[in-house]
Amino acid sequence: IVLRRLSLLLVWLSAFACGPGAGEEVEILSKVTEGGDTTSRTTSLKYLDTDLPERYYLVFRQELSMLDVNGFIGMDSDILRNKVSEAGITPTGPWAVLTYEWDTERGWADVAVAVPVEKGTKLDPYVTITLPASKAAGLLLKGSYDGLSAYHLALDQELKRLNLAPLYPSIE
Contacts for 149-158 with beta carbons within 8 Å, 24 or more apart? Predict the structure, then answer.
């Protein structure tokens, strides 16, 4: 699964800087209840801001149930990785998951597996998209993916505190 292979996770959600301060590291405490037992976990977060250049991605985008997202990411990123390798295409950066919409009330998501490529790269049946140059804010997650929910909640709360709305797609 792509998420397991990533050593660092960046989510670029806003065209504005956010957080306690760019580069500042904070720790959040989350509680997980499983099988009647509650476990407390500390997750280390580092807020980032940066200028992103224009970038290009080969993508496979899908609207699906949130229950199917992990399977989609795992299976379709492997398929895309193999097709890119067979075509002799060299990625220009880390593989990504693009999130266009995440609707927890309906249990529905619009996501894409993506590989950054050089401008003009084509590979059927995938679509090449361009993301414009922009300022971006995000969080760097250090630790296991067990803290991912707390991470997303912390970023959402920080954006609300700053009265900012995320721009999509977000990049993980």
Answer: 149/30, 150/28, 150/30, 150/41, 150/43, 151/9, 151/11, 151/43, 151/45, 152/11, 154/28, 154/43, 154/45, 155/11, 155/13, 155/18, 158/18, 158/19, 158/47
Cα separation, 145 vs 161, whole angstroms: 25
Residue 42 dihedral angles phi and psi, to the nearest 5° = -105, 130
Query: Confidence class of residue 8 from pLDDT cuts 50, 70 and 90?
Result: very low
pLDDT digits (tens, 9 = 90+) for 50-96: 888 999 999 999 999 999 999 999 999 999 999 999 999 999 999 99
